[in-house]
Amino acid sequence: MQDNDISCDQLRRYIRTHHESEYLLVDVRQPGEYRNSHIPGAHLIPLPQLVQNMSALPAQIDLVFYCHSGGRSAAAA
User: Fold this and answer.
1) CA distance linking residue 11 with residue 42, whole number of Å
2) Strand 43-44 and strand 62-66: pairing?
3) Which residues are 64's β-sheet partners?
4) Which of 36, 50, 58, 62 could form a disulfide with 23 if both were Cys (CB 3.0 to 4.6 A apart)?
5) In the chain, beta strands by DSSP E
6) Could you give the CA distance from residue 20 to residue 46 in angstroms, rounded to a whole number?
7) Residues of the chain with pLDDT > 70: what percent?
8) Distance from CA of residue 75 to its chain's centroid?
9) pLDDT tens for residues 33-68?
10) What is the pLDDT of residue 60?
11) Contact at 8 Å (CB) between 45 and 53?
12) Nearest one of 22, 17, 31 to 60, comparing CA atoms
């Protein structure tokens, strides 16, 4: 994937057509939001902590960031 927005349906299709080893799904919301609901398999890295954790993110696979409305995930990307 490239640096662009995708819809919920596009993400569902991407997840169905790619093996989980090909991408990392990153929830950049706050822990309380993540506890209330999240996409199965997503890793929680709140946006304020993302910079500290950048070196831990794999460079060789697609990184898919998501949040509630798209603002935080766009900033993460």
Assistant:
1) 12
2) unpaired
3) 25
4) 62
5) 23-27, 43-44, 62-66
6) 21
7) 96
8) 12
9) 999 999 999 999 999 999 898 898 998 999 999 999
10) 94
11) yes
12) 22
